[in-house]
Structures are given as structure tokens and as C-alpha cells.
Amino acid sequence: MFSFLPCFKTRRQRTKSQTQSQKQIEEKANAIESLPSWHSPTENTLLFQAFEWHVPTTPNTPDKRSHWRRLQHALPAIHSLGVTSIWIPPGCKGMDANGNGYDIYDLYDLGEFDQKGAVGTKWGTRGELEDLVREASALGVGILWDAVLNHKAGADGVERFEGVRVGDDRRDIEDGDPQEIAGWTSFTFPGRGTTYSPLQYHWHHFSGVDWDDAHQRKAIYKILDPSRPDKNWAQDVGTDENGNYDYLMFADLDYSHPEVREDVLRWAKWIMSVLPLSGMRLDAAKHFSTGFQREFIDCVRSQAGDRKVFVIGEYWSGELRALLRYLEEMEYRVAVVDVPLVERFSGLSRTRRADLRGVLKGTLMEARPGNALTFVTNHDTQPGQMLENVVEPSFKPLAYALILLRQGGHPCVFYGDLYGSCGGGQSPVPACEGQLPILMRARKWYAYGEQQDYFDQPNCIGFIRYGNAAHPSGLACVMSNGGPATKRMYVGRKHAGEKWTDLLQRDDDHPSVTVVDEMGYGEFPVQGMRVGVWVDSAADGRGCMKEPFDVDIYGSRAC
């Protein structure tokens, strides 16, 4: 006879277990002032992605300003929300004057030379970029550059060379015999000439193309070089997808060629000397040599001297193991986009009454928080984009509360969420019903110190931040993706008698106050499908939480 009794706890056993758990929480919280974290002088950092895919070109906006000028004007207000760095779009000349810069043409043209039909880039001229960087430096805001180093586009001419076709989904398998093809691989930069760099690019500087102009055929071709018989796809890309995923698009740069390496490292030194950058994002890091990426990062940081340089590797994979493998190959010198987290947000947002307790399970934020770039949306995941991962509007406040107010991860707020997106022909509508600035300010003022999780109900979770010596107020966050709920959480006996209110409480809501009891506990309610961020009503900074933030960045709400 089998007994299943051990699988169940009596009410008395559950009560005893809960009491023990509460006691442990209280003991931990009461000891925080003896921990090193209590005396940490470090202020919270916050990255802002300062563009979205559908930012209109300058003539099509009511303000008639370039994007660099627009950001320069908005920077003081953005900084006041707690933003410490902005990630700007690719500032190098692309093949399309109205493109976003990922169709990179010339690394050394920052909107200075008459090339590809314009002097400036979509974002503005070099002079306007330098003005933006000066304004940021004066405010103490760092600039993170979006470095597109995987490929080149918009060649100035066609060249003939030997190539071999490979499979679309097996780039390591040749599909036919070598043949002479013609590709757009001649980059002579007629507008710039040899200013800043003497190198002109030709077919032997690339490893592959996806168009044979001689036969008007679209296919992926691996470039062959009789003088370099070992020429191949990079073998140290961080993935074995498609057999080898070195080739992504356009004319794929060959980092085994010494002239390519020398020129891109020359550019690294040059860009760091002309702009006091605080960081780099390596676009398409999944698709070019990790060995060169390490060399590039060393070069950038050496050129920066005493300036700290934060580097993001845009390695796109929903598999945690793949991200951890890339981090290991990069010797943990970079932060990596937490794709599993944003995919989790997307899935939870589209599932009715999804279990919130596992929201962080299998994410980089949980496994390697110091190397996780956390976000809710970016330019690649917007509706209609290649990596679309839509987080439903009702869930975005929950997602942003998780990345902004918790320990761990390097959070990034998206331009299209703060100001709204111009996609779809609609007027831009900010996310989170306009309350994202409050969540950002809450991070700046209160999200410090040790953390206690209350992930104990499937549709209502919460956590406490206990603060530190410089920011002693702390906060209590509770969220529900079901109906209204209340969570009892321990904030500490030192807060007994304090009146805590919800920063996100709307003006038309019935006023709600939680008084912390003599034991240090508070009962923190939250409405259905909402977030509550509770802080002592007398805490420093409360007066600025609901200050108006101007979301009309184009001078008119219409794009």
C-alpha cells in the first residue's frame, strides 16, 4: 500500500513553515546596515536607446530639426529621469541617406562628406553630432556608439572574382563548382577620398556576397582568393547556426584579412579620439569573429584611457546556453542582450493569467546579472521588424518595473516607449499610459540596496528594495496580471508608523495609504493588470515623481 501523505502539508505545518520563512526574512532585513551594500556610494545607472526604427527624416517633422539637434534639446529632461547614458543610432554614412545606418557604407564619414546623395546622415551632420556629445558631456551623460562592423553596403562599383555558391541554411556546404561572379565590392569613397583612412575596399577584403551581378542571381556566395587558399568563413563566430553564420547580409567583411583588421582598429582609435564615447554596441556580434571583437574592445578601452567603456554584444539568441557560451568566448568583457527575458515578457503578455513566478527563469538576468542588458522593446523587436517580439501594452508597466526596480541587469529604456513610435502612420503614443517617467525616477531615487522577493502567487508577485545609506527609503513593488490583489511584505521595523503611498496611483484613483505596522509589515494592494510602487510619502524625492515630462519630441504629436 502506497502512502501519499508525505506529499501534503497540514495547515499547522504550512503555518510553521511560513513563520520560519518570515523570521528569516526579518533577520536578513534587520542586518542589512552591516552589509557592504548598505554603504555603497554607487548611483544607479540607466541606458536610454535614443531612437526607434521609424524616426522620421528631418524634413518630415514639424520641428524641422535633425535628430542630433532633437536629442540635444531633449537631453536635460531625459537626464532628469535618471538616464546616465544614451545609445545613439549608427552615426556613420549608410548606403541610403534616409536609412537608419545599419546599411553601413563608410565608417569614417560621420555626416561630413557629400556621399550617397547627402552630406549628413539621416540623423544629422558631424557638427550637430559633436554638439550633442558636448551637451551630453556637460551633463555627465555618456554616449554609447552603435558600431556596425559586420559588413559594408552601397559599393561604388562592381568587381569580378571567383566565388562558390553555398546553401542558405548550410553555409558550410558548397553548392556547385567555383565560378566567376560579379559583386558590389568596390568601395572607393569618392567623396572622402583618403581623409582619415587610406584604405579602399575591394573583393578580397570580403568573405561573401548575396548577389551575382553577372548572372543577375540572388544567392549566398563564398568569395575565393587564389592568393589565399585558406580563405573561408570566420570559424570563431559565436554560433553554429546554418552550419556557419558568418554571413548575414550585404558584403561580409573578412577579418582574417590583415588590411581589414588594421583599418577597423584604426577607426576605433579615430572615433574614440574625435568623440569622448563611454560605450560601444557591437551590432550583429553573432556574425563576425569573436577573436577580432576581443581585439577591438581592447583597442577601444586602451584608447579611452581612464574613461570606462561599457560594451554591449548584440548576440541575438533565445537560448541561455548560447548567450553564456558567447560570454565565455568574450571572456566576460561585454554585456549581452537578454533575449530570453524579452521573449518571456512577450509570451507572458499574450497569455491570460500567465504564471508570473517564473518570469526570470532561464534568463541572463537570473544567470549572469552583471552581464545582462535588459530591455522590454528595441528597434529590432518593434512590430514588423525582423526580430519582432511584441510585448502587449498592458504588460509593459510590469516588465519595466521588473528591469528598472530590481537588482541585477543593466536596464535600457526604449525611445519608442518613452515618446511613442511613428510606425503605422499613427501619432506616437507613449507606453505605460505615460507613467514610464515615474518608473525611471523611482529607479533613480529608491531602487537601492538588498532585495527580498515575494514570488509566492501565480498572478501576483512582489519584491522589496531595502535601500542603502545614501538612499534609505527603499520601496515595495507589487504587480498583478489577474485581478486586484494585496501582498503583505516586510519593509523593516525602522519604517513602523510610516505612511506609504503608490507612486503610480492615478489622480482619479481613490487615495490609498498603507501604514507600516509596529512589526515592520505593510499590506500593499494593487489593481488588476497593474503595478504598484510603494514608498514612504515623506521620502526624499516624492515631490518630483509626477513632474510633467514633455513627450512631444517632434514639436507636434504627429510624426
TrEMBL record:
Would the keyword Zinc turn up in this protein's UniProt record? Answer: no
Instruction: Kindly indicate whether the keyword Isomerase belongs to this entry.
Output: no
InterPro entries named among the record's database cross-references: A-amylase_thermo, GH, GH13_cat_dom, Glyco_hydro_b
Name the SUPFAM superfamilies on file.
Answer: (Trans)glycosidases (SSF51445), Glycosyl hydrolase domain (SSF51011)
Cite a single Pfam family from the UniProt record.
Answer: Alpha-amylase
Source domain of life: Eukaryota
Give one GO molecular function term: calcium ion binding
SMART domains recorded: Aamy
Sorted alphabetically, which keywords does the UniProt record give? Carbohydrate metabolism, Glycosidase, Hydrolase, Metal-binding
The residues covered by the Glycosyl hydrolase family 13 catalytic domain are 45-456
- Protein's GO biological process: carbohydrate metabolic process
Q: Which CDD domains match?
A: AmyAc_bac_fung_AmyA
Cofactor or coenzyme needed: Ca(2+)
Provide the family line: Belongs to the glycosyl hydrolase 13 family.
What's this protein's name?
Answer: Glycosyl hydrolase family 13 catalytic domain-containing protein
Species in which this protein is naturally found: Aspergillus kawachii
